[in-house]
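Note to self: keep these together.
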Amino acid sequence: MNILGIESSCDETAASVVSDGCLMHSSVVASQINLHESTGGIVPEVAARAHLQAIVPVIEQAMLDAKCDWSDIDAIGATNGPGLPGALLIGFNAARGLAYSRNIPLIPVDHIEGHIRACWLNESPPPLPALALVVSGGHTELIRIEENNTFVRLGSTRDDAAGEAFDKVARLLGLPYPGGPPLSALAETAQERQLKLPRAWLRGTNDFSFSGLKTAVLNLLKENDHPAPAEIAWAFQESVCDVLAKKTRNLAEKENVKSVLVAGGVAANRRLREVLAEHISIELRIPPPNLCTDNGAMIAAAAYAHKNNAVNAKSPLDIEPTAMRKKRLRSTETAR
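Structure:
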């Protein structure tokens, strides 16, 4: 089954053709990083206009790279949330229009599940039940995945997401946007590596908090004799990776899962991968860096998992910018 996946939840316009939820034939991503550098962050209206300009060329290139025409496409999967409302509208409505005009089933996809399903791409299915750590600019979540496609949220951030914290601390250190890669590069140049920053364990919970760590960096930089920026970057990254890895390990042991999946843009961080490998003793699966950030292939993979839930593009449909769909991704409170 060939599915065209379309993603436009934030600042990447992406499309991909994937067979049977795992075999990737193409992946085209139009990034807006250069567009948002001058403002140090994403301006939603600017992002939406960029998606509008890129959506048709990106879809056409994905089809061309996959060497297929519309008669080869069995369904279209598209992100309908969470994400920026204007950005979501561009990709989802493009998918809806294509599905309607060509009488192809449409499969709405949750963006978070899409990130997790990247762990299925070009691989055999991971052993289930699994625990997924989703770490990105907007999300930090721990999610249990059952064999029947049930996703149960067991923990989340109470304030900043991990990627958001990276961006904010990078800005404090005078680094360019997006902050994750340059902060990690700066951390690798640290020489002494003795500085230790606080870790918010939130004991007795599966939740995360990174706002206090960000404030600790801010207060440190206010001191006249503060450590070198590279030392601060190293200590910050160590703190984030330490908390993410240990809380994931502890919950995986408690839940008695068979594998740990890591997804989202921060999953591309080399140091996080190293620390997770040190702490996780069961199968650990992390997609290659190009599949950690937003892409259409992960959306196609998620759509395949829900192929029986395809809808008619003529039906009343809408995006869901803020809330994940409760029927598949439930919170701890409703599930436990």
